[in-house]
Amino acid sequence: MERVGYARLIDRYALPARPLVAVSVVSSAIRGRQVRDLGMEILHQFQSTYRPDDSLIGDLQFALRYEGLSLEVLFHLFTAIGAEPIRLLYTGQPQSAVTRRLAYLCEWLTGTQLDVPATSKKAAYVPVLDEALQFALAASAGKRDAKYRVTDNLPGNRNFCPLVTKTPYLLGMVGKGLKKRTVDALAQYDPGVLRRAAAFLYLKETHSSFEVEREKPSPDKAHRFADLLQDAELGKPLSENRFVELQNAVLDPRFREVSYRNQQNWLGDDLGYRQRIDFVPPRPQDVRSLMEGLVELSERLRAAPDAIDPVISAAALSFGFVFIHPFMDGNGRLHRYLIHEALSTAGFTPKGIILPVSAVIVANLDRYRSALETFSRPMRDRTIYNPDVPTVPATGNDAVYFRYFDATEQASFLFYALERTVEEDLPAEIAFLMGFDRARRELNGLADWPSHSLENFIRIVHQNGGRMSRTKRRSQFGWMRDEEVTRFEQIVAESFNERRADDDAADLD
Question: Taking Cα atoms as reference points, which of 185, 177, 208 lies closest to residue 360?
């Protein structure tokens, strides 16, 4: 098998690119085109008739036609070979859509203007990003470049532009119309029920977000984060000051910061005698430009919320933020907050409600960590840093890897989490609240309940399959008569449409 496209360019020019998510090969043993998932790599196999010329333009043409844009590889390529080869390719074929796109991208990525004549005005405009291969801005939101007669439909900017491949899974998820399904799912409930559900869901999302990090928040900290989540729908413009305000809101005052970090941070375990480093974010001098790019992307998407799928943009913003890790602490919580803010400002989440995404994350931590490690593992392998000597800068964690990362896996996880949230978790949470209210109304007048004991009784019985265990009965409800316990259990079970257990002796405590 012969590596072609981006893979061969990386090999030929010894480009310091991370391993490709998808590698293209040509083989005489293949008929047509085939795709093989090898776990850490996806292999795109092409029959021999697809073989490109073994040249710079041959592999670039192949890559743009079949692989889409890898801004990271192109940045490294243009840095390695300089602008002159691209200038020559364009002047040799000034009407070619490929050379026009390459010339534009060379200027866009390097900031170097090519001394070439403009493309003839007779040439039709072509998109920079192939919409058949990757998620791009809608044509109406793209900016036209008159010099090369191209439409810049890249979702981001030179400082921050993650891209997402249109995999069969993601195309299927987009086709499901989760935004409309969310609205339809909520429309079946009484507004009063939704108001009660919203208050509960904000609290649940708060505790779930902390649980992701195995942390139990104090009541004050939980209250601050819940308030923050409710503010997400206000769509306050993002900026360094806004991010500092958000970071300060989620942390103990002793750990609040006044700006983006000015030192190198790292993630992993400090074992005392040695450190196990899992991930080193970008160097501190690169953080501000990366975050400026992220903010610019957010502003662009808010100005045109229909320009790209809201889940795709939410994934790029929120995961991009946590990869940049602009603060020394609080980045994980702000990452999950940004998911809600991006979805809300894009109109995906209805006003006054929150989707309990963090609960799905908690229930699928391995899958969530896999989405993070798709990015962090290759970065760890190429980064050198010794926390014991913090004055020596890290190497290998260059800004380019954070500017132009492939966000396909992160978008896939977020779609998975949202579908489960909309289809399973949200209806289950609302059903729980409705059942809880029914049980409380029924039981409230049947006994003199000590403070908070009514709610506690309902929770215990519901969680225990419609029964009160002997241990809970003795420790908390010894004042109840046997016939009251039996009757009240039945009311709770019926309120939640549960069947009582057959084994009266069961003690599931």
Answer: 208
